[in-house]
């Protein structure tokens, strides 16, 4: 399983890719382009693609095929789609074997298991079953697995509501959360667990047996039969002559499970219908009522994020806008800095700071993801609302302030009773407009483990790639069902305000 | 009682007010006339502390406002002074989000801190006094210009100022509406309200004012009872000005 870092770090990978693209092409052998997601991908691919067992495996395969290894970055979840589009020739990045990959999969190159990791200080969880025990305060154990992985499916199926379960795209961050005791356990494929636990032995440990063994396979396009045959041949050779064992030993990944590779290397591939394949690879039918329930719950989360964050954004924005217009210098300057910093940095980054970085400064900042999302959206949108308010306040004629002052009101009272109420009418249309924008920006909260609509969509299509289009339509419909009434409301308010003005 | 002593106001290099002094005794009405750009409005705005000045002083009853020096006048003094001196603007400046009654109540409620009930009764009386008892619940944009200016006068009266300053109260109005407003001001004068009126309406100035000040280029060039100023203007500016407005 390829651990992944958030998009903003992944962007740097895209930059590297662009630079590689403009570099002069090597005149050597044709390329073996393989799709992967390198970011944070230890022990699969790491250290700027210089290390990792899959880097070495790809190099070996390329050599066997008389080609040059050319790793190409993509979003891990979408690698099979990128493969079909023709972005690269194969996918080689911890892809689990599943029946729906039957026509595309190479022979297995690794047999992984699900591994359970906990904090070193944890004296209560010694086995998988211990996850069900409540914490001393009565709450459930918080457990995270990789989004769309076999681990996620297993945990949901076996533990159901006994644990506080969530998923994350980001393996290295998940282990950080565990090391910082923000979560109680994580379930990952054993290569990742072995690597990260060894890397942070002082704070992490593995407990329990590895579960649900399954294969990592290389994916090819269905029609590329010849390429698939060559890859199978090369893999079988590497299994027989010990090349694979050598690579895996180097990364501490060789274990008894891998001896089964010998068996599968001798079997016809793909396995016939009568051959027993791992439970984890078996077909999973779609439960549509469950899909509907999940999307509905996610839509509710989206609504909660938007509805609870926006009033704070407007309130804070109003205070900042007013302070910036009428406050003394020592108030104005921090307000300007706030607006510029928040507007000038991505919401995603701000959410990461709130959710991942602040808790490292002090445990006081350890927030439930939903609260972190609401706070992040409120802080972000407050900067935009502040600018709208400033424009609205500026639009009020100077005579209004003078008339209020001439009556003997304090400047504060004048702003509160005379200026702000008038500015409000001006700013309502742009603010309702921003509410719709915020509504869609809630999708960015998927990066901090909030299962809102976009994230739920990702989870669903990872589990059932064949229905990607159906899920996309359902998700879009849900967004539209919620945002269109908002648009109507915005238009209604605007019309009413206009009528009020022209009533004279 | 308003006393202005040696007031100097500069905007950049230009002297907008050049050593202006005048006295407005209680119960009297003064008209300030003269060519545009002579500093008439600025004088009113300085008296009401809407603008700062560089030298001289303004005294209203027992409150004294000095020129802005190293120390700024306290917000408290400014507020008391503004309460003491009502202001009626050329462009009315009514609060568009409040009804006529709301506008009149704004001062008592938000400046004097009166309760709604306290403020309402007297505000209604004031609206009746300016002839708008039946339009208390109209919004400014539902009133004519003359009506708006009458609401503005009621609004200024509502905080019980000892004097009211009028800054060209009828310049933005057509003649018929102007007459309504002037009628209200004349009634106030008869009732003994202390007032200072910047105006171009000469007939009105003559009718209402006890003293007339002619301003030009930031100075008061001539002062006196209107009859005298009209009959025997002393200064060239006055003669020129009267000829044009006649």
Tell me the layout of helices and strands.
The complex is a heterodimer of chains A (504) and B (246).
Chain A (H helix, E strand, L loop, with lengths): L6 H16 L8 E6 L16 H12 L3 E6 L5 H7 L4 E7 L13 E10 L22 E5 L3 H10 L4 E5 L2 H9 L5 E5 H10 L4 E17 L4 H17 L1 H8 L9 H7 L21 H39 L2 H16 L2 H15 L7 H26 L3 H9 L4 H31 L11 H11 L4 H35 L2
Helix pairs in contact in A: 7-9, 10-11, 10-13, 10-15, 10-16, 10-17, 11-13, 12-13, 13-15, 14-15, 15-17, 16-17
Chain B lengths: L1 E10 L2 E11 L4 E5 L6 H8 L7 E6 L2 E4 L8 H10 E4 L11 H12 L4 H14 L15 H13 L5 E5 L7 H16 L3 E5 L3 H7 L2 E6 L2 E6 L1 H6 L4 H10 L1
Parallel strand pairs in B: 3-8, 3-9, 6-7, 7-8
Antiparallel strand pairs in B: 1-2, 1-4, 4-5, 9-10
Brief synopsis:
Chain A has 504 residues and is an alpha/beta fold. Chain A has helices at residues 7-22, 53-64, 79-85, 150-159, 171-179, 190-199, 225-241, 243-250, 260-266, 288-326, 329-344, 347-361, 369-394, 398-406, 411-441, 453-463, 468-502; strands at 31-36, 68-73, 90-96, 110-119, 142-146, 164-168, 185-189, 204-220.
Beta fraction of chain B:
25-35%
Strand order of the largest sheet of chain B: 6-7-8-3-9-10
Helical content of chain A stands at 55-70%
Count structural domains of chain A: 3
Catalogue the unreliable spans of chain A.
1-5
What CATH calls the topology of the largest domain in chain A is MetI-like fold
Q: N-to-C terminal Cα separation of chain B, in Å?
A: 31 Å
- The beta-strand count of chain A equals 8
Biggest chain pair interface = A-B, 23 and 29 residues
Taken in chain order, the helices and strands of chain B follow as EEEHEEHEHHHEHEHEEHH
| CATH architecture grouping of chain B | 3-Layer(aba) Sandwich
Overall mean pLDDT of chain A stands at 88
């Amino acid at each position: 399983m390829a651990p992944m870092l958030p998009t903003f770090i992944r962007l740097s990978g895209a930059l590297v890719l662009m630079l590689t693209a403009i570099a002069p092409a090597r005149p050597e052998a044709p390329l073996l382009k393989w799709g992967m997601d390198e970011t944070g991908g230890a022990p699969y691919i790491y250290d700027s693609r210089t290390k990792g067992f899959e880097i070495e495996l790809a190099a070996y395969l390329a050599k066997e095929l008389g080609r040059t290894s050319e790793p190409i970055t993509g979003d891990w979840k979408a690698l099979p789609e990128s493969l079909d589009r023709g972005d690269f020739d194969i996918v080689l990045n911890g892809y689990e074997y599943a029946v729906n990959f039957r026509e595309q999969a190479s022979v297995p190159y690794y047999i992984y298991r699900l591994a359970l990791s906990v904090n070193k200080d944890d004296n209560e969880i010694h086995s998988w079953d211990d996850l069900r025990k409540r914490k001393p305060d009565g709450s459930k154990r918080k457990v995270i697995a990789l989004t769309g992985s076999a681990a996620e499916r297993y945990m949901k199926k076996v533990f159901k509501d006994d644990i506080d379960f969530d998923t994350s795209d980001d393996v290295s961050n998940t282990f950080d959360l565990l090391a910082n005791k923000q979560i109680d356990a994580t379930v990952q494929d054993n290569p990742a667990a072995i690597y990260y636990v060894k890397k942070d032995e002082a704070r992490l440990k593995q407990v329990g047996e590895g579960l649900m063994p399954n294969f990592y396979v290389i994916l090819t396009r269905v029609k590329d039969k010849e390429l698939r045959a060559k890859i199978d041949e090369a893999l079988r050779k590497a299994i027989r002559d010990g090349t694979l064992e050598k690579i895996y030993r180097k990364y501490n990944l060789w274990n008894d499970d891998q001896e089964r590779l010998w068996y599968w290397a001798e079997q016809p591939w793909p396995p016939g219908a009568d051959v027993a394949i791992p439970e984890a690879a078996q077909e999973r039918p779609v439960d549509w009522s469950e899909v509907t329930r999940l999307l509905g719950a996610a839509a509710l989360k989206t609504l909660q994020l938007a509805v609870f964050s926006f009033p704070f954004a407007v309130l804070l924005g109003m205070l900042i806008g007013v302070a910036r217009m009428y406050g003394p210098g020592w108030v104005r300057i921090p307000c300007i800095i706030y607006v510029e910093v928040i507007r000038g940095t991505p919401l995603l980054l701000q959410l990461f700071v709130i959710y991942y970085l602040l808790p490292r400064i002090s445990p006081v900042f350890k927030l439930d993801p939903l609260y972190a999302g609401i706070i992040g959206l409120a802080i972000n949108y407050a900067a935009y609302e502040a600018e709208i308010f400033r424009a609205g306040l500026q639009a009020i004629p100077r005579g209004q302030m003078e008339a209020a002052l001439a009556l003997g009101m304090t400047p504060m009272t004048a702003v509160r009773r005379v200026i702000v109420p008038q500015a409000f009418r001006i700013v309502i249309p742009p603010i309702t407009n921003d509410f719709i924008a915020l509504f869609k920006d809630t999708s960015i909260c998927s990066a901090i483990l909030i299962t809102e609509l976009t994230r739920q969509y990702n989870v669903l299509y990872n589990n059932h790639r064949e229905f990607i289009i159906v899920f996309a339509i359902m998700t879009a419909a849900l967004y539209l069902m919620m945002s269109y009434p908002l648009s109507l409301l915005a238009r209604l308010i605007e019309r009413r305000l206009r009528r009020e003005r022209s009533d004279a | 009682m308003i006393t202005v002593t040696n007031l100097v106001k500069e905007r950049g290099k230009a002297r907008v007010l050049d050593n202006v002094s005048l006295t407005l005794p209680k119960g009297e009405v003064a008209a300030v006339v003269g060519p545009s750009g002579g500093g008439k409005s600025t004088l009113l705005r300085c008296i009401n502390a809407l603008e700062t000045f560089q030298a001289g002083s303004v005294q209203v009853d027992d409150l004294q406002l000095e020129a802005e020096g190293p120390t700024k006048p306290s917000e408290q003094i400014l507020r008391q002074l503004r309460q003491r001196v009502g202001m009626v603007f050329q462009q009315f400046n009514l609060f568009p989000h409040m009804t006529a009654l709301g506008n009149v109540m704004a001062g008592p409620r938000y400046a004097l801190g009166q309760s709604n009930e306290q403020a309402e009764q007297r505000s209604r009386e004031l609206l009746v006094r300016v002839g708008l008892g039946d339009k208390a619940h109209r919004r400014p944009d539902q009133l004519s210009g003359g009506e708006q200016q009458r609401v503005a006068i009621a609004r200024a009266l509502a905080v019980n100022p000892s004097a009211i300053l009028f800054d060209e109260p009828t310049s933005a109005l057509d003649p018929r509406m102007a007459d309504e407003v002037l009628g209200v001001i004349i009634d106030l004068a008869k009732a003994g309200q202390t007032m200072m009126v910047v105006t171009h309406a000469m007939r009105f100035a003559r009718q209402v004012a006890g003293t007339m000040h002619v301003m030009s280029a930031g100075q008061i060039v001539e002062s006196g009872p209107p009859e005298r100023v009209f009959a025997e203007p002393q200064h060239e500016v006055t003669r020129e000005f009267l000829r044009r407005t006649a």
